[in-house]
Specification:
Blueprint lengths: L2 E6 L5 H11 L7 E7 L5 E7 L2 H11 L8 E7 L14 E2 L5 E9 L2 H10 L9 H17 L6 H9 L5 E9 L6 E6 L4 E4 L6 E4 L11 E4 L4 E5 L5 E5 L2 E3 L4 E2 L15 H7 L1 H9 L3 E2 L4 E2 L2 H6 L6 E6 L1 H18 L2 E6 L14 E7 L5 H12 L3 E6 L5 H5 L2 E4 L12 H20 L4 H12 L1 H9 L2 H11 L4 E6 L4 H15 L2 E6 L17 E5 L5 H12 L5 E5 L8 E4 L7 H21 L17
Length: about 625
Amino acid sequence: MCGIFAYSWRRKDADSILLHGLERLEYRGYDSAGITVGNDAHVVETFKAVGKVSALVKEVSKKRPSDAFYQFGIAHTRWATHGGVTVENTHPHSDVENRLFLVHNGIVENHSDLAERLSSAGVSFYGQTDSEVVAKLIGKETAARLRTGSPDSLLEGVEAVLPRLEGAYALVIMHADLPGELIGVKYGSPLVFGRDTKTGDSFFASDVQALAGYADQVTFLDDGDLVRIKPDGTYEIRSEGFLVSRPFERVETEHLKTEKGNFEHFMLKEIFEQPKIMKAVFQGRVDFEHLALNAAAFQDLRDIDIERVKFIACWTSYHAGWAGAYAFREYAGMSATVEIASEFLNSPVRVDPKILYVFVSQSGETADAIEPLKFIKEHGGKTFGIVNVVGSSISRLTDFGLFTRAGTEVGVASTKAFTAQLAVVTLLALFYAIKRGEDFRKYRSALNDLAKLPEVLQSVLSSSGEIAEVAKELAKRPHLFFLWRGSMLPIAAEAALKFKEITYLHAQSMPLGELKHGTLALIEESCPSVVFLPDDALFAQNQSSISEIQARWGKVLAISAKPVQNADWNLVLPSAPGLTFAFAATVAGQLLAYHAALELGREIDRPRNLAKSVTVK
């Protein structure tokens, strides 16, 4: 949600660079976009549009003077929090003199008090955002210093305002009277500073992916960091008013570039990448021939005394943590639970040094997870991160961790990142199974199953056409149930989430055994059920539940490891033994959602009202 991109130094196509950067950030979810650009002649222009970046591109093309050139600027995609989706509320925001411009991610929680004080001083507002309040404050302080001739007017103006802001923010600020100078600030919301060492160009972005092909060195800023790009192209980094040094990482950002190839949507491409992703997850970490786990993170954990595990995450990642809790109980014989990150601190918490707190997040920037992570760290808890993005906040804050290696995921509805999370939480459980001396036969069987995963998932993908036919039928119904038993419940929950995320149809998951406790009242022909049946001890019981549904005229799609005679539709995944069935069923559920959404004509890669990385509370 909300994306920042900024550029400075001397290229004369800054507007094109900024628009391209915003296109790289579209996957985050947004509802309006804008840029402010300037040049050495003190010319500044702002362009805004409600809707997609493509609408902004048209706005720039229509209103940009033919002889204009722009050498620096700031850009933003907004996901509405304060104020409606209007041009007035779209970033960048300006001060009262329309000379200072600002883009902002996060939420300034005391903006109402700050706005009231400004109003009392005669300042009026054109919109309803907290970001405009910050722009007005910094503009006022900067203008006062410009009148004194201070060469550091913008820096001093920014530093005068920051102590008054409460909440989380990433800011990038520019001023029409100080061409080429940009200031970026990070506190509680992600911001990356990048440099092209060949040209001296500087960039800010809320996501390193936006810097692909532009910057070859980046630094992931810490909370409280302020970066000032000076008009001569040099820069300085400050924290609490003092100059500091931050390490830069050389990043081969070319691999972050994303193309759909021959696929109609990024989501479908990412579903089909999953066999390859499984190989990447296991590479160098699992020696299948010798049944050994070799990840460096596991070596770090060997001497750490842990008795229990608690997964903390949000929705899709929550489902991965839920599956991980089952895996810990099954293979490691350990007590393991999962909690919704946004609710973790809403009741009394006692941090236990014998618990390993595992934070699962695709982006590694999820605000609802970062807050409990900081709380646990402050109280001496041991933390482990499972994230996809190198350099992200969670990856840097946790004591230990494993990256999921899923690669850039553009589709807002997560697919390959989720299966990668499933694989990593399973490996973590298997590590503790060996560490604790649990049943080696279970451990060996699990690893043998995981070795087959790429082949198993490829087999499911070959059934995409068959799944599409069933999806067309399900797309005609307004309500669906996704049902399972035992350790597969998280997979049913994730399948239901995917379905409603991109089809906009109501889908609900629940244990099959709970149907008789009230939910049968909703079963009818217009409300089909998707039932998952692995080849286990519960297979016959699951078949009986299907008959119970059909007795109420409910239709049933059975996704199963062997044929189900009494289902209305049956998708058989015969090459998915044991542990692999959960992964195979996950991919089948993703394809089911994709093809139903395609049938309904939905905007699959960027479904309405959803954001890829939720960086505000």
